[in-house]
């Protein structure tokens, strides 16, 4: 143990939600997970255009660097700006210097034409050499034909699928509907209401802060035999904080557990983005030992090297101007919130 670790991986992010902070409250208070989706996220994603997506991704990538996170596994949706959206996100992350694995979340929420355009955006980006997975929003917003089209595209291209599974009770049918489709390279986000004895293959992505915020329940990922990795579900990319919340939540149901399990979930990120393990983050705290980190607030990276290049040093990104990104993101957030 020392003050240096490999780059951290945020295994489930929504870079498009970086501009959500400060958005006007929904017309009425959402009382269920389904209402949160309808009144917050599905209004927000429908209002996005490519310029908003660009600055949202720039801000999200900047904040990842500022958290010592060198790789983001993103899940994107922008139903009125689908074509080209994955390239905009990949380019923004490349500009900041952060690794990203993109996916467009296919859904039938906007009819079969919207679903087909989502599948095509995944195909266009991946066939063009983009780093990514095929995205599916969730089984409960997709027809069987759409699920099969997305899974088939992933098989054809030799990549996995990134999909929300049983985040809320609305998606209770997912295990049965996805059972014949999943493979080991699938990423299954949330799995709060996934039965312990299930037939789905893939890595389970645990998002402790988001699950608390949506009151969907505790996933208790230690009960699964699948590999488990940690994500933020779009609420920043601070994986040290995410590890601390994951540990405390696990303690809340098992007071005998130590931080080793939650730390191992952090390390699973390197099986999803292996290059991140070669990145170097020098932290403000020594040693970066799970037992110490679990009880130490405010640990920050001092220096971040990605692929051998110092992309963050002395509190600032080296390739981009943090103040400019924040100012542009604020301008785009004003435009976005005005549309809601
Ligand atoms: Zn999500």
How would you describe what is shown here?
The chain is built from eleven helices and 14 strands. Strand 9, helix 7 (208-213) and strand 10 form a beta-alpha-beta unit. The protein has one domain (4-339): TIM Barrel (Alpha-Beta Barrel). It has helices at residues 33-46, 50-65, 85-96, 111-127, 144-157, 174-178, 208-213, 239-253, 260-272, 290-293, 322-339; strands at residues 4-5, 8-13, 69-74, 99-101, 105-106, 134-138, 161-165, 187-190, 203-206, 228-230, 280-283, 301-306, 309-313, 316-317. The strands form three sheets. The protein has a six-stranded parallel β-sheet. The model has no long low-confidence stretch (mean pLDDT 97). The chain is 39% helix and 17% strand. The protein is globular, with a radius of gyration of 19 Å. By secondary structure, it is an alpha/beta fold. The longest helix is centred in the C-terminal third of the chain and has 18 residues, at 322-339. Zinc ion binds next to loops.
Shape: globular
First-residue to last-residue Cα separation: 48 Å
Overall CATH architecture? Alpha-Beta Barrel
The helix tally amounts to 11
Gyration radius from CA atoms, angstroms? 19 Å
The chain-level structural class is alpha/beta
By CATH reckoning, the class would read Alpha Beta
**Main sheet: strand order:** 5-6-7-8-9-10
Largest sheet, strands/sense/barrel: 6 strands, parallel
Helicity, in percent? Answer: 25-40%
What is the H level of CATH, i.e. the homologous superfamily? Metal-dependent hydrolases
What value does the average pLDDT take? 97
Ligand inventory = zinc ion
Count of domains: 1
Following the backbone from N to C, one meets helices and strands in this order, namely EEHHEHEEHEHEHEEHEHHEHEEEH
Say what the CATH topology is. Answer: TIM Barrel
**What is the tally of beta strands?**
14
Task: Give the percentage of residues in beta strands.
Answer: 15-25%
């Amino acid at each position: 143990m020392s003050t240096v670790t490999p780059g951290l991986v945020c295994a489930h992010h929504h870079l498009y939600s970086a501009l959500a902070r400060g958005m006007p409250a929904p017309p009425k208070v959402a009382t269920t997970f389904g209402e949160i989706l309808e009144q917050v996220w599905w209004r927000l994603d429908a209002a996005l255009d490519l310029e908003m997506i660009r600055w949202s991704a720039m801000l999200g990538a900047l904040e990842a660097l500022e958290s010592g996170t060198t790789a983001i596994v993103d899940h994107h949706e922008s139903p009125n700006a689908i074509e080209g959206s994955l390239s905009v996100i990949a380019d923004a992350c490349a500009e900041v210097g952060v690794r990203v694995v993109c996916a467009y979340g296919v859904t039938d929420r906007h009819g079969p034409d919207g679903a087909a355009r989502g599948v095509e955006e995944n195909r266009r980006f991946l066939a063009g050499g983009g780093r990514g997975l095929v995205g599916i929003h969730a089984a409960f917003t997709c027809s069987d034909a759409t699920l099969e089209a997305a899974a088939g595209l992933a098989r054809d291209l030799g990549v996995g699928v990134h999909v929300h599974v049983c985040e809320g009770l609305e998606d209770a049918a997912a295990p049965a509907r996805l059972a014949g489709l999943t493979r080991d390279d699938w990423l299954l986000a949330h799995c709060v209401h996934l039965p312990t004895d299930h037939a789905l293959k893939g890595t389970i992505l645990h998002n402790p802060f988001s699950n608390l915020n949506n009151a969907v329940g505790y996933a208790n990922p230690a009960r699964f035999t699948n590999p488990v990795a940690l994500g933020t579900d779009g609420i920043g990319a601070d994986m040290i904080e995410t590890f601390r919340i994951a540990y405390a939540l696990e303690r809340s149901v098992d007071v005998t557990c130590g931080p080793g399990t939650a730390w191992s979930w952090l390390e699973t990120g390197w099986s999803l983005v292996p290059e991140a393990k070669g990145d170097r983050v020098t932290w403000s705290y020594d040693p970066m030992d799970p037992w110490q980190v679990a009880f130490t607030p405010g640990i920050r990276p001092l220096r971040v090297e990605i692929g051998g290049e110092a992309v963050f040093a002395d509190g600032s990104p080296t390739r981009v101007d943090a103040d400019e990104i924040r100012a542009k993101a604020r301008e785009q957030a004003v435009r976005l919130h005005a549309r809601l």
